[in-house]
Amino acid sequence: MKTTLMALTFALAAPFALAAPDAQTILAGSDAVRNPDKPFGLIVSLVSYKDGQENERSALAVYSRADKNSGQFRSLLRFVSPARDAGKLMLKNGNDLWFYDPASKASVPISPQQRLLGQASNGDVVTVNLALDYTAKLDGEEDIQDGDRQSRHCYKLHLSARNGGVTYHAIDLWLDKDGYRSRKAKFYAESGSLLKTAYYRGYRQVLGRERPTETVIIDGLNPKWVTVMRNSDFAWREVPEAWLQRDYLPRFRAE
User: Which residue pairs from 100-104 have beta carbons closer than 8 angstroms and sit at least 24 positions apart in sequence?
Assistant: First the structure.
């Protein structure tokens, strides 16, 4: 009788012990892995390839901080290279993006989906909290190959956009069960067509915890079109409120 009671107790308790965390909690945990919790700066280097041959390359300095009210990141991006683009700026404030060209002295609104380099859009370069812009659903667990062709057992989340101002209508995201490190993502248009697949790799200790330092982005239609984004020169730094104002763009000077 005692043995039967113990077995029944374990059977009833097991589903609760093994239950996965809430999907939105998992997504917020993955945001914390990718995103530092204080104002910071870094350099993003992008190289695009077509049919295995290098096609373009560029570099941007990124200055970012989270908004105290919304929790979403606000970022200023300064183009470093190539020389023809050096000094141009891009500002993200909420879901609004502006591009500033010192030659014309005009700042113009742009779409997050507009091309930046290869398959890396403006929305890929700026820092975002996905949990604020997307509703997450846990689609179970899957074994996948990560960006280094290593087998990973992951949670799979399906993300649905909360509003039309975000870069992608939906995202499938695979994360480590332990630590919520993002490993793979697929990004979809409103039509349901696959826009790109991304692999997050190069995890190392930066700004207080292990974070990805490289993203490989593969075109949804032509897998031979690949963009590699590498993040370097991470640093805690002041990001003045003035830098994040559209009217300040003509007066910005790199330190």
Answer: 100/249, 100/250, 102/250
Place of tokens 């930066």: 206
Nearest 10 degrees: Cα torsion 93, 95, 96, 97: 90
Alpha helices (H) along the chain: 2-18, 23-34, 122-125, 130-133
CA distance 95 to 167: 9
Report the distance separating Cα 135 and Cα 78, nearest Å: 31
Alpha-helical regions (H) of 79-229: 122-125, 130-133
DSSP secondary structure code for residue 235 in this structure? E
Residue 127 tokens read as 């820092």
C-beta separation of 35 from 180 below 8 A: no
Name the residue with tokens 């975000």. 166
Contact status, residue 57 vs residue 48, Cβ threshold 8 Å: yes
With vertex at residue 146, the alpha carbon angle to CA 16 and CA 142, rounded to the nearest 5 degrees, is 30
Tokens linked to 20: 């996965």
Question: Which two structure tokens, joined as six digits, stand for 22?
Answer: 């809430």
What backbone torsions phi and psi does residue 130 show, to the nearest 5 degrees? -60, -35
| 225-236/40-50 β-pairing | antiparallel
Tell me which H or E stretch contains 57: strand 53-66
From first to last of the 255 residues of the chain, give the pLDDT tens digit: 444 444 444 444 444 445 668 999 999 999 999 999 999 999 999 999 999 999 999 999 999 999 888 888 999 999 999 999 999 999 998 778 999 999 999 999 998 778 777 778 887 888 889 999 999 999 999 999 999 999 999 999 999 999 888 889 999 999 999 999 999 999 999 999 999 999 999 999 999 999 999 999 999 999 999 999 999 999 999 999 999 999 999 999 886
